[in-house]
Backbone:
């Protein structure tokens, strides 16, 4: 898992301060955002450069934490006098989708992502869950990345469908949850939905199904991955971004990942995301050791074995 | 898959006439009931004897079909002047749980299952989804079966909880769906729910999750089985009973099935159930060839392979 020898990943997404209520408790203004979860998660596997924006209220301790993970912050814009993007959400007993109580876009409202000249040749680009118009703007600044991966959500599928479809035509790997896949494809059956979505561009599609695991659709076949059997979920925020981090992080360690490598990467994403769910914010993600990651991945792979 | 060399299975359950509405169409008074689906499904793997009741309105063609599958009907009581149990149900777009439109218990209301003397030594007993008091009455008539398996539903978990818990203490293998497992255990988390349910008696538990597959909880480990990727479901009625039929039918072919055999049996149940969903009533289940079953099982096992 030596990140320094892997291909470099550029991620664009949100860096946020989240206020969270779950059945396990609540936290005020803790670190959140797709680029935060993805960046920290992927930094375990590959060099990561973040393109994002925060206000000058953003705690220095979090910047230090990013740096301690080797994350390159040259592309993190700090707006003087600006306030960081804030989100407040609540999870019910089932720990399904969060109910958004408040969104303050703040500096994110005017965010115009800029890719620095030396970042334009990053071989891997992860377009985190932000406005597809911004995702397009970032993609336009890149010099033919080897792998473009994207995450999105219902809000953009419904509200910015055309822009999203435009960016999808240039994406190699798409990560969606089931509801999003159905909404995007307008198909209820998940296998038909996958056909429709892949016809929009992404050759490889991973449909996340929460506690039911995920399905990888690849040109060489389909792989059904189970979830990690968690007996307690503390806070599911960021699980999807962490899943993408493990998946893409592991892909970054290979020049030309094939179907088997993709399957292993899905298991790694699954395991990394399971750790995120075991603590508030990035608490558990930051504390995971390589030994824990390897042991849990082996145990997940074992649960798939028939013989 | 030669059934004649396998251990014999005694099944008690319902034989019904179902009227079904699904997004694919509707059918009036076609063959249904847990013992019908289970019996036909399991007869492919092992000798099956059915204990059930019908009225004299029950079509002779269905009896002939049962016989053509080698099913022993000595324990099928035909009540002269009685009407067969009838159920009318409707499935919505998602093909989730059916909405019951009408239930006519008819001859089932007075059903007092009798196990014939030569059937009491059957090595395997499947207690289909009927009143747990009837399940107990059948179990009391048996002479120490090697394997007792049971299916039940929300209706009995809520309405006959004490009797159900009494019968569960004598059950080896329990098949439940997720909602039922949560209701029975009063635990939302499925792994905790499994602990609670297994402490009630059944050492082996299979929790069915519909389109998400199933989880096998066994004393030697946990196995997460995917569902068959179906692009179209015509009628899910009887899928659960057919799952149990494939599972228990395959177990009947071995003297002392271990964890690996249990995992293979879960895949067989999964595949058999997928065929049931592809037609109304028992139509597709009756037409499946061994070649189709073997091919689909191989393909399902393949979708689990990482390397």
Residues:
């Amino acid at each position: 898992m030596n990140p320094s020898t892997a291909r470099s990943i550029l991620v664009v997404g949100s860096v946020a301060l989240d206020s969270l209520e779950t059945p396990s408790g609540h936290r005020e203004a803790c670190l959140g955002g797709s680029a935060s979860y993805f960046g920290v998660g992927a930094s375990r596997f590959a060099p990561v450069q973040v393109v994002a924006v925060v206000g000058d209220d953003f705690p220095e301790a979090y910047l230090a934490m990013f740096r301690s993970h080797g994350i390159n912050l040259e592309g993190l814009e700090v707006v003087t006098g600006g306030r960081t993007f804030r989100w407040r959400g609540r999870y019910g007993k089932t720990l399904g989708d969060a109910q958004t109580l408040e969104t303050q876009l703040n500096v994110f409202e005017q965010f115009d992502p800029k890719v620095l000249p030396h970042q334009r040749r990053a071989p891997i680009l992860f377009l985190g869950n932000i406005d597809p118009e911004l995702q397009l703007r970032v993609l336009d600044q890149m010099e033919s990345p080897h792998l473009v991966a994207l995450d999105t959500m219902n809000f953009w599928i419904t509200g910015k469908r055309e822009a999203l479809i435009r960016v999808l035509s240039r994406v190699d790997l798409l990560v969606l949850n089931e509801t999003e896949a159905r909404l995007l494809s307008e198909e209820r059956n998940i296998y038909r939905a996958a056909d429709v979505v892949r016809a929009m561009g992404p050759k490889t599609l991973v449909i996340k199904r929460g506690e039911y695991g995920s399905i990888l659709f690849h040109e060489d076949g389909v792989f059904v991955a189970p979830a990690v059997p968690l007996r307690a979920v503390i806070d599911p925020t960021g699980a999807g971004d962490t899943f993408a981090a493990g998946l893409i992080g592991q892909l970054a360690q290979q020049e030309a990942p094939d179907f088997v490598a993709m399957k292993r990467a899905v298991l790694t994403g699954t395991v990394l995301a399971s750790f995120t769910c075991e603590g508030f914010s990035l608490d558990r993600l930051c504390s995971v050791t390589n030994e824990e990651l390897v042991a849990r991945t082996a145990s997940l792979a074992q649960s798939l074995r028939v013989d």
